[in-house]
């Protein structure tokens, strides 16, 4: 890892880590690297920050530099879930009821999305 920042468990037993170098890595429960999201999806991150995994196993990543939140499904292309209204998204959490909580350090608040 190069400058690990945020971490989230994966329902299958592994975990996801965002890095300062501009990537997000997915690890198996054995701590073996499973994939890099930038390599797997061909996605260019600005400054990945908070990460979480939803109930379907999709990985969500907040990008501080781009002021966005992207969803990375197990199969298929990344989807931009939030493209406006964020100033500096940092930490995130996904609820079992489908809500996304984003700590926006640029506005000193928590924003909730459904």
UniProtKB/TrEMBL annotation:
NHL repeat residue numbers: 42-75, 86-114
Repeat among keywords: yes
Gene3D superfamilies membership: TolB, C-terminal domain (2.120.10.30)
Family matches, as InterPro entries: 6-blade_b-propeller_TolB-like, NHL_repeat, TRIM-NHL_E3_ligases
One BP annotation, GO: protein polyubiquitination
Spans through the membrane: none
Key words, A-Z: Repeat
Keyword Repeat attributed: yes
An annotated Gene Ontology molecular function: ubiquitin protein ligase activity
Name used for this protein in its record: NHLC4 protein
Organism this protein belongs to: Toxostoma redivivum
Taxonomic path: Eukaryota, Metazoa, Chordata, Craniata, Vertebrata
Gene from which this protein is expressed: Nhlrc4
């Amino acid at each position: 890892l190069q400058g690990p920042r945020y971490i989230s468990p994966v329902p299958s037993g592994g975990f996801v880590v965002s890095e300062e170098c501009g990537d997000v890595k997915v690890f198996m429960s054995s701590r073996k690297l499973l994939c890099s999201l930038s390599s797997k999806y061909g996605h260019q991150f600005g400054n990945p920050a908070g990460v979480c995994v939803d109930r379907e196993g999709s990985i969500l990543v907040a990008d501080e530099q781009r002021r966005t939140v992207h969803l990375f499904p197990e199969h298929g292309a990344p989807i931009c879930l939030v493209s406006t209204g964020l100033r500096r998204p940092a930490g995130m959490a996904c609820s079992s009821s489908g809500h996304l909580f984003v700590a926006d350090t640029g506005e000193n608040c928590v924003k909730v999305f459904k």
